[in-house]
């Protein structure tokens, strides 16, 4: 029962830490570090929650989650008598069901996203054109403002005619640098597990807030990459122009430059940048994230 209790406590700690992290503002000073912490909390919460249920269910074997589950499967195969009451059986079913859901949903979300991107690429092949003024970028003949990227093996950055007329050359360069950062750092893969968890727990305010926090941090991380190649004020003015124009919604499976809910926070950060988080603090957070991420798998091996 020790392993089950420790895993349950770890899952609770992760949930409380995630709740506190949704209100934190130091994350804006080190978005990449904060994203890694969010990933660690999400992974650990999932493994700890599943592990707590399975550790309780498999406690009669006194071999921990991994070896206890192997023992259970062997006993099922050879028709041995199961040392179970109804409560442990319910915990076993719940743990395996949660494991299946948390594995299947990201896979399903990923497959749906790939299909959406494939359809959108086919559409772009018909309606988009190359523009000498912006080499390597696909331009769509549409008066509204749009700028987004389709990540993947054949990534594409797409803008509209309206964007070309809306932004100055310096602002357009900043927007393209932002989109290039999304493509290079595969921020779509960062967001995928959180979107999948939102589908699994649509009623959870904590999950909604966590997804929104990570989405904002991803945009800030791309802003930081863009500011290394261009003037941050130009990116800020470009965001404001998008925010005040009739900007088009980002297509499914794509990452856009501007989300209305996060524009002002990003503009303030670009115009009045805060002092970055000290290197020692970032190192401690990264080390803590690593320790947290490996704790649950190790506890799966802890005998009951």
TrEMBL record:
The keyword Magnesium does not apply. Its cofactor is Zn(2+). GO terms for biological process: proteolysis. The keyword Coiled coil does not apply. The chain crosses the membrane at residues 34-57, 86-111, 283-302. Binds 1 zinc ion per subunit. InterPro entries: Beta-lactam_resp_regulator (IPR052173), Peptidase_M48 (IPR001915). Residues 119-193 form the Peptidase M48 domain. Keywords: Hydrolase, Membrane, Metal-binding, Metalloprotease, Protease, Transmembrane, Transmembrane helix, Zinc. It comes from the Bacteria. GO terms for molecular function: metal ion binding; metalloendopeptidase activity. PANTHER family: POSSIBLE SENSOR-TRANSDUCER PROTEIN BLAR (PTHR34978), SLR0241 PROTEIN (PTHR34978:SF3). Belongs to the peptidase M48 family. This is Peptidase family M48.
């Amino acid at each position: 029962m020790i392993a089950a209790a420790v895993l349950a406590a770890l899952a609770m700690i992760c949930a409380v830490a995630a709740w506190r992290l949704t209100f934190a503002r130091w994350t804006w000073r080190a978005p990449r570090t904060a994203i890694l912490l969010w990933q660690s909390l999400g992974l650990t919460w999932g493994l700890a929650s599943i592990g707590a249920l399975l550790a309780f269910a498999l406690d009669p074997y006194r071999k921990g989650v991994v070896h206890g589950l192997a023992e259970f499967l062997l006993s099922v195969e050879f028709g041995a008598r199961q040392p179970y009451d109804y409560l442990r059986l319910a915990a076993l079913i719940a743990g395996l069901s949660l494991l299946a859901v948390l594995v299947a949903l990201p896979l399903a979300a990923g497959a749906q996203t790939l299909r959406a991107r494939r359809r959108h690429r086919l559409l772009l092949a018909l309606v988009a054109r190359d523009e000498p003024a912006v080499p390597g970028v696909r331009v769509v003949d549409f008066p509204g403002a749009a700028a987004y990227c389709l990540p993947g093996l054949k990534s594409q950055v797409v803008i509209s005619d309206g964007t070309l007329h809306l932004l100055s050359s310096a602002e357009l360069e900043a927007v393209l640098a932002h989109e290039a950062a999304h493509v290079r750092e595969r921020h779509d893969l960062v967001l995928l597990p959180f979107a999948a968890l939102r589908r699994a727990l649509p009623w959870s305010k904590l999950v909604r807030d966590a997804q929104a926090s990570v989405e904002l941090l991803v945009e800030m991380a791309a802003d930081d990459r863009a500011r290394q190649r261009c003037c941050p004020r130009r990116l800020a003015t470009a965001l404001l122009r998008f925010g005040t124009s009739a900007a088009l919604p980002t297509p499914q499976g794509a990452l856009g430059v501007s989300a209305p809910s996060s524009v002002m926070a990003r503009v303030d950060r670009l115009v009045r940048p805060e002092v970055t988080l000290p290197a020692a603090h970032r190192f401690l957070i990264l080390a803590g994230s690593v320790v947290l991420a490996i704790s649950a798998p190790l506890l799966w091996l802890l005998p009951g």
